[in-house]
């Protein structure tokens, strides 16, 4: 009987992409995936620690998964990802059932760690810095869930040090993946039927700056677009500070680059932006957005916002609402500020009470709901291009280039095709469409 693994992933797309690589690695070691943790020989939790809530979720899952050892004493429990990197042995003390621990720095060491744990040792490999040979991870295959859209990690780490954020601590300094390694993976993916390439990093717009001979991110967009078979390109996350004119030009110029951009602004008040150390003002952010909207016609913006950063006043918060009104984002991910151990913001005077955060958050959501329903109305009657990703009970599901979910009647033969549709009815989260034409 072959061995089985179960993996549960928390956090951002980078973590999901890491899990796809861990799955690929485990397959080469002869493990088969299972959706049921109770029959697994190896359970992996790929964790996130961006806010307090994901930390707690990991502990409660560990409490449940430890029962596996009663049934299968040889089963191993591994914790990977950002919480592992941040908490290390402290977490093993809280949850001694952990057999294996590693982070995004040393995923490539998983095979050795499994051997070590099977020999009865605790295999806790949390490093202070990413090791020299971390690039080995790119040699492992990726096991993808989506046949037509693939994530490709292009840069690891973050050099920005926003005062609220743990990511520079958990993912280390910025390390760009070499151009040839990215392009090789993209070629393999399109050979495998992928049509949409989603370039990933905590800070993709900083890609290439750390090379001996720096390469601008805009050039990477051109290189990827030249690969035969790449129909769509997305990238996440861009930092407003690094979103230079050449990137905006490339977005306008390259037909495959989707009409959507996720550009977190976090807060509208300049005083709060300074306390966050974001490196731009509200006016500079808005100016970039206006430029984008002018050059890339019909671009759909999305963003991240933090509510209740230390010392945030009513007036500060109204600046955040004002940015929502002005930009009219199609998607807003909003978070209550969560103090993270070791970050400057956690120690700041003037922490905002949870009641105030909740009250502001509900106002923000109310405003965004109104904006979304207005945007939805604007979609009705329009013609859109949709890449069909899934078929469920005779209904096809896909996304527009503006990253909106769309559904239409049709059969499986349209899977993976880009089709032209007419939007009959639009709600905040879905467009009901009818097929006009199969494009390619
Ligand atoms: N690199 C990306 C985002 C990484 S984290 C960027 O800079 O845009 C994803 C989002 O989590 C952030 O954009 C921020 O809105 C939120 N976040 C990060 N730290 C947080 C904290 N301590 N409390 C609340 N939200 C936080
Ligand atoms: Fe965190 Fe800021 Fe880096 Fe984003 S840019 S990962 S918020 S430190
Ligand atoms: Fe979470 Fe780490 Fe991503 S903290 S958001 S999994 S970079």
Please give the structural blueprint.
Elements: E1 4-9, H1 13-28, E2 32-33, E3 42-47, H2 52-65, H3 68-71, E4 76-81, H4 82-87, H5 89-94, E5 100-101, H6 110-118, E6 123-124, E7 149-153, E8 155-156, H7 167-171, E9 175-176, H8 179-191, E10 196-200, H9 217-225, E11 232-236, H10 245-253, E12 260-262, H11 270-276, H12 282-295, E13 300-307, H13 314-327, E14 331-336, H14 354-379, E15 383-392, E16 395-400, E17 405-409, E18 418-426, E19 431-438
Parallel strand pairs: 1-2, 1-3, 3-4, 4-5, 5-6, 7-10, 10-11, 12-13, 13-14, 17-19
Antiparallel strand pairs: 8-9, 15-16, 15-18, 16-17, 18-19
Bound molecules: S-adenosyl-L-homocysteine, iron/sulfur cluster and FE3-S4 cluster.
Description:
The structure is a single chain. The protein is α/β, with parallel strands linked by helices. The protein has 3 domains: 4-131, Methylthiotransferase, N-terminal domain (Rossmann fold, 3-Layer(aba) Sandwich); 133-377, tm_1862 like domain (pyruvate-formate lyase- activating enzyme, Alpha-Beta Horseshoe), CATH 3.80.30.20; 383-438, OB fold (Dihydrolipoamide Acetyltransferase, E2P) (Beta Barrel), CATH 2.40.50.140. It has 14 helices and 19 strands. It has helices at residues 13-28, 52-65, 68-71, 82-87, 89-94, 110-118, 167-171, 179-191, 217-225, 245-253, 270-276, 282-295, 314-327, 354-379, and strands spanning 4-9, 32-33, 42-47, 76-81, 100-101, 123-124, 149-153, 155-156, 175-176, 196-200, 232-236, 260-262, 300-307, 331-336, 383-392, 395-400, 405-409, 418-426, 431-438. Helix 13 (314-327) packs parallel to helix 14. The longest helix has 26 residues, at 354-379. 43% of the residues are buried. The structure holds S-adenosyl-L-homocysteine, iron/sulfur cluster and FE3-S4 cluster (F3S). Residues 158, 160-162, 165, 167-168, 202-203, 239 line the site of iron/sulfur cluster.
């Amino acid at each position: 009987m072959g061995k089985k693994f179960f993996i549960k992933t928390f956090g951002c797309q980078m973590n999901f992409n890491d899990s796809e690589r861990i799955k690929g690695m485990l397959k080469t070691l002869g493990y088969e995936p299972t959706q049921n943790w109770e029959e697994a020989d190896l359970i992996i939790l790929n964790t996130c620690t961006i806010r307090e809530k994901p930390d707690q979720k990991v502990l409660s899952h560990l409490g449940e998964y430890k029962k596996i050892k009663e049934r299968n004493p040889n089963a191993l429990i591994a914790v990977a990802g950002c919480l592992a990197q941040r908490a290390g042995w402290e977490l093993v003390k809280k949850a001694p059932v952990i057999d294996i621990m590693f982070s995004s720095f040393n995923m490539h060491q998983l095979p050795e760690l499994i051997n070590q744990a099977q020999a009865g040792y605790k295999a806790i490999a949390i490093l202070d810095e990413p090791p020299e040979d971390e690039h080995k991870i790119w040699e492992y295959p990726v096991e993808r869930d989506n046949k037509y859209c693939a994530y490709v990690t292009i840069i690891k780490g973050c050099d920005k040090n926003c005062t609220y954020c743990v990511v520079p601590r958990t993912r280390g300094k910025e390390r760009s993946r070499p151009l040839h390694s990215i392009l090789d993976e993209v070629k393999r993916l399109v050979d495998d039927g992928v049509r949409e390439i989603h370039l990933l990093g905590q800070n993709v717009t900083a890609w290439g700056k750390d090379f001996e001979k720096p390469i601008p991110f805009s050039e990477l967009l051109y290189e990827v677009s030249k690969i035969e078979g790449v129909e769509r390109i997305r990238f996440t996350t861009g930092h407003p500070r690094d979103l230079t004119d050449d990137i905006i030009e490339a977005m306008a110029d390259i037909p495959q680059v989707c009409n959507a951009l996720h550009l977190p602004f976090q807060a509208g008040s300049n005083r709060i932006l300074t306390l966050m150390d974001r490196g731009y003002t509200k006016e500079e952010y808005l100016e970039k957005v206006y430029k984008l909207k002018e050059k890339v016609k019909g671009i759909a913006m999305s963003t991240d916002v933090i509510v209740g950063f230390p010392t945030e006043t009513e007036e500060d918060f109204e600046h955040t609402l004002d940015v929502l009104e002005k930009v009219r984002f199609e998607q807003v991910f909003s978070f209550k500020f969560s103090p993270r151990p070791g970050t400057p913001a956690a120690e700041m005077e003037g922490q905002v009470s949870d009641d105030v955060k909740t009250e502001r958050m509900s106002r923000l959501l109310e405003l965004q709901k109104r904006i979304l329903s207005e945007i939805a109305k604007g979609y009705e009657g329009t013609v859109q291009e949709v890449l069909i990703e899934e078929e469920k009970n005779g209904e096809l599901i896909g996304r527009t280039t503006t990253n909106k979910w769309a559904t239409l009647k049709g059969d499986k033969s349209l899977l993976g095709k880009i089709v032209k549709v007419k939007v009959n009815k639009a709600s905040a989260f879905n467009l009901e469409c009818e097929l006009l034409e199969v494009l390619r």
